[in-house]
């Protein structure tokens, strides 16, 4: 398994696990549609994080969050 931070741009991955003890963060990711079994694509890597595509939305997430999403 690797983290979203290590993902290749434009390749679709399946979320395997969200590795955080922060319930608010878990709830936030769930509200975006980011949870185990869901496809996720890194659109581009930025200096402080990355832009991801989940379902029909695009979101900018920081590196700390990207490292908590295992693919």
TrEMBL record:
The Ferrous iron transporter FeoA-like domain sits at: 2-71
Q: Which organism is it from?
A: Ruthenibacterium intestinale
Record Gene3D superfamilies: 2.30.30.90
Q: Name the UniProt key words of this record, in alphabetical order.
A: Iron
**In which domain of life is the source organism classified?**
Bacteria
State the protein's name.
FeoA family protein
């Amino acid at each position: 398994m690797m983290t979203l931070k290590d993902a290749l741009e434009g390749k679709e991955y399946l979320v395997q696990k969200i590795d955080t003890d922060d319930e608010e963060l878990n709830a936030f990711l769930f509200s975006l549609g980011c949870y185990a079994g869901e496809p996720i694509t890194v659109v581009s890597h930025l200096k402080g994080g990355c832009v991801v595509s989940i379902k029909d939305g695009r979101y900018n997430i920081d590196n700390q969050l990207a490292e908590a999403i295992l693919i």
